[in-house]
Amino acid sequence: MPSSQQDKKTRCSWCGTDPLYIAYHDLEWGVPVHDDRKLFEFLILEGFQAGLSWITILRKRDHFRKAFDEFDPHRIAKYTPARVGKLMQDEGIVRNRLKIESTIKNAQAYLRLLRERGSFGDYLWSFADQQARNSPLLPGKPVPATSPASDAMSKGLKKEGFAFVGSTICYAFMQAVGMVNDHRSDCFRFAELAG
Hints:
Elements: H1 4-7, H2 19-27, H3 36-49, H4 54-67, H5 73-76, H6 81-88, H7 97-117, H8 120-125, E1 133-134, H9 148-159, H10 167-176, E2 180-181, H11 188-194
Parallel strand pairs: 1-2
Helix pairs in contact: 3-4, 3-7, 3-10, 9-10
């Protein structure tokens, strides 16, 4: 994994020195994602992150994938109350009943949206006008929590039946999947992703 101590690259300060966080920053955060299922996974994990730090979710991500059938919406949409009870006992995930139940609801909404629109990715990327936006942050400036685009995405997803998709969650999702490049202007990843 990359190490900020070893390579001396300038990075966004939020990733700190944790090797897992640095790897996520360097290899995933802000890289455009168009795959429907991967987008679904990111949206679910962003919802679970609400009220927690992202590093908590990263540390549990592999277990989340096992617990939620690799984020297969067809399987998740059929989860029963007994399955919810089993997940509530799983220490490898965030055990929040509302978030677990919203994952089932979101899988059902995802499948409806696919039937009606054909592509989850095209729908989500429509809120970014189908292209990544470069929004370099100056060092020391706070990362935005929302935007007009995340407001619109949140409203649209709620209308489609999704839960745990407030504007702050949607903005974090947009950053994660590369709809907006919010790396600091002096971060080595900003130029790489802006190119």
